[in-house]
Amino acid sequence: MYGTGLLKGLAVTIRHFFLPKFTEQYPEERPNLSPASHGFFEYDYDKCIACRLCERACPNKVIHIETEKDENNKNKVTGYDMDISYCLFCGLCIEACPTKALMNAQNFETTVYHRKNTHYDFLSPVPHEMNEKFDAVQAAYLEKHPPKVSVARPKAEKPAPDPNAPKPKPKPAPKPADADAAAEKPAPTAEKEGE
């Protein structure tokens, strides 16, 4: 009894031993990211109109914006800070931005050793340099190791309908219910209580 169960379990294990591996050995193997992946943020100061919609949309109040009026009496951003330690990466700030000044970058390498390093000032060059460095490393890796393209089987094409083939006969319509039988049955009536 114990021997057959052990052999069945080992058969499953040995079968999986010969299957191809699907685990990525990160960081030696870099992931091939989808263009829709949510990573770190990229902020374009020139597009920002200081409307503060991203700040209001953030459920955790991660974004803090400081503004002042310029010579044309328009709002101008003087400080754009994010505390990433509380960020959900939900994307509500990106959806709220009418000018697309805040976008997702593909950089997901945002780990730090101290919590104080999760506070980013987007008017300083540090977040932009971090995204550029990630893009350069990713591009260099993909140049050396092009992504494996999976070859999908071509779908079987449906043959074109033969114009000379006989057309199927239409199904006959269902017969109407017998009207005489329905007329003979009396309709149900409500009876009064006490009769």
Description:
There is one protein chain. With 195 residues, the chain is of the alpha+beta class. The chain contains 5 helices and 5 strands; from the N terminus they run αβαββαββαα. A 3-stranded antiparallel beta sheet has the order 2-3-5. A two-stranded antiparallel ribbon has the order 1-4. The radius of gyration is 33 Å and the shape is extended.
Keywords:
single chain, about 200 residues, alpha+beta, Alpha-Beta Plaits, three-stranded antiparallel beta sheet, two-stranded antiparallel sheet, 5 helices, about 15% strand, extended, EC 7.1.1.-, NADH dehydrogenase (quinone) (non-electrogenic) activity
Helices and strands, with pairings:
Blueprint: H1 2-17, E1 41-43, H2 53-57, E2 63-69, E3 75-83, H3 92-96, E4 102-104, E5 119-121, H4 126-144, H5 179-184
Antiparallel strand pairs: 1-4, 2-3, 3-5
